[in-house]
Write a structure and sequence with these properties.
binds protoporphyrin IX containing FE, Cytochrome P450 oxidoreductase, two-stranded antiparallel ribbon, five-stranded mixed beta sheet, heme, Cyt_P450, transmembrane, alpha+beta, membrane, 516 residues, 53% helix
Length: 516
């Protein structure tokens, strides 16, 4: 009414312009929704109409940290492929890993990573996570030297040093817990402890010096990294709306912007300090610089890569260890089996990278932990090639029409695939036995091809071997030295939002040193 009165006050040409504007404001969304539902190239893909019509349900859930859980329910309802946004598809079949994430060959095409998911560029040049094509191939070739089996053997002493330090800190806390349980520093939050250990170890490998977290309990780095990941999740959501995409950087709160700058500035300074020193220590840069070919890596790329390693190689391993600890405490029979295996070693010195490679149950526990509580739960988004592609036997177009980005995004979300009864029997239960060489009959038909916690293809995690060694060593050390139980046995700790990564709560435990 008020609008009609306003329109009545103005003369005819202006009136016409106002009506046109009104039509545009109301008509454009109606046009987009009609197009998305009735004419879109993905209109026949199963899924709820509301999610297909607009971005709102997908990104409302992403911003609340509930998208992955909702998408799991949608797969239960609609099957192995679901249209989860106007131009986005989610798959859970193991074949989708090969089709979407596989290599470029004579018969297959490597899909490009959807850059919107990684947030804006910090370094002026992409590191490993954001690079594409030839630059990605070159960086991968150069950086592989730091992650080879030979490199890992050389790094063993360095990695063990941090596992030892962790046990030292836990011993002191366990003593306090016994003598004065009410002191705040008698609390043992295993999420924090694992973060400190993996951050210190990764900083030593990336910068030639630790952050000193295990010594000083300085948490700013860890909390910065988690808020950085959260900010990337927000920026990702904003960038999906083309009208807002260009202003993403400016929409960030000042504190987050400053935090990101500080983090990157620190990476630059530490790489510079490290490069000023001639050393034979087997950290990443010794191995990379010594072995690089003439194309090598630029200084700017080194800054970006160091920042990638600190983001990708720390929180992930700490998440795996935290998840494994909670599930083991929640399933005492599994904890007992693991204790029997690890405590059969004659001494802690016998726990080596090599000896732990042969521990069947420890390996099964870590695999099952990554299945039920995947460290990268939402996975990596990819763009369907423009000319379209066949995924799981069905052809999907790569052009999504005149609205939004025009590209079709697709992914396999590890949490969704791993918790689906389509792939796994008893999917929500923690059953390491499904990963031992001769699994119980009911788990023999599990579709293990759907389980790819480190991704697949040309962008598979470069740190996978390092992560396995690190996780085996740290968990074995903790189990060898301590009996662990939860402070609050009723709290379902894994009930946490996912903002790209798990927003982990503190995991408070009681520790008592093993009596031998
Ligand atoms: C449990 C531990 C870990 C898990 C579950 C994990 C998982 C993953 C996954 C799923 C990807 C692929 C993402 C995509 O396809 O878009 C990835 C990539 C990557 N990861 Fe890991 N990661 C772990 C530990 C590490 C460690 C220790 C490092 C060491 C530096 C690392 C460095 C990287 C890097 C640099 C990439 C990007 C690779 C590329 O684009 O070529 N990750 N990781």
């Amino acid at each position: 009414m008020a609008l009609t009165r306003l329109v009545n006050l103005v003369d005819e040409p202006l009136k016409a312009a106002l009506y046109a504007l009104l039509l545009l404001i109301l008509g454009y969304p109606a046009l987009v929704i009609t197009y998305n539902l009735l004419f879109h190239s993905l209109r026949k893909v199963p899924g709820p109409k509301l999610w297909a019509a607009t971005l709102l349900p997908a990104y409302y859930n992403r911003l609340r940290g509930t998208a992955v859980f909702r998408i799991k329910e949608l797969h239960d309802q609609y099957g192995p492929v679901v249209r989860v946004a106007p131009e986005e598809l989610s798959f859970i079949d193991g074949q989708a890993w090969k089709d979407i994430y596989g290599y470029n060959t004579a018969n297959t095409v490597a899909f490009e990573r959807d850059a919107l998911q990684a947030g804006p560029e910090e370094a002026g040049t992409p590191g490993l996570l954001r690079s594409k094509g030839e630059q990605h191939n070159r960086l991968r070739r150069t950086l592989n030297h730091a992650f080879s089996d030979k490199a890992l053997k050389q790094q063993e002493g360095l990695i063990k040093n941090y596992a030892d330090m962790l046990i030292g800190v836990l011993n002191r806390r366990a003593e306090l817990q016994k003598s004065d349980p009410d002191r705040p520093d008698a609390q043992i939050n295993m999420v924090e402890m694992y973060h400190f250990t993996t951050f210190d170890a990764m900083a030593d490998l990336s910068f030639g010096q630790p952050l000193g977290l295990l010594k000083q309990r300085y948490t700013a780095w860890v909390s910065f990294l988690l808020s950085h990941v959260k900010s990337v999740a927000y920026m990702h959501a904003i960038a999906r709306w083309p009208i807002l995409a260009r202003s993403v950087k400016y929409l960030l709160p000042k504190s987050v912007k400053e935090g990101r700058e500080e983090f990157f500035g620190y990476c630059v300074a530490k790489v510079e300090e490290r490069m000023a020193v001639q050393t034979e220590r087997p950290d990443f840069w010794s191995l990379i610089v010594k072995n690089q070919d003439e194309k090598g890596i630029t200084r700017q790329e080194m800054y970006a890569v160091a920042s990638d390693f600190m983001v990708a190689g720390t929180e992930t391993t700490a998440t795996l260890l935290s998840g494994a600890t909670w599930y083991l405490c929640t399933y005492p029979d599994k904890m007992k089996k693991l204790c029997d295996e690890i405590r059969s070693f004659g001494s802690a010195d016998e726990l080596t990278l090599q000896s732990l490679q042969n521990t069947v149950y420890l390996q099964a526990v870590l695999q099952e932990s990554l299945r039920v509580y995947p460290a990268v739960p939402a996975g990596g988004m990819r763009l369907v090639p423009k000319e379209g592609y066949t995924i799981c036997g069905e052809y999907y177009p790569g052009y999504s029409g005149p609205f939004a980005s025009g590209r079709v995004t697709c992914s396999v979300m590890p949490y969704v695939a791993n918790h689906s009864a389509y792939n796994f029997h008893n999917p929500d239960a923690f059953v390491p036995e499904r990963f031992v060489p001769d699994p119980p009959a009911e788990y023999r038909d599990d579709k293990k091809g759907a389980f790819k916690p480190f991704g697949h293809g040309p962008r598979v995690c470069i740190g996978e071997n390092l992560a396995w060694h690190n996780a085996r060593l740290i968990l074995a050390y903790v189990i060898y030295h301590f009996d662990i139980s939860l402070v609050d046995e009723k709290d379902v700790w894994v009930d946490q939002p996912i903002m790209e990564l798990w927003m982990k709560k503190p995991l408070l435990v009681k520790l008592s040193p093993v009596q031998r």
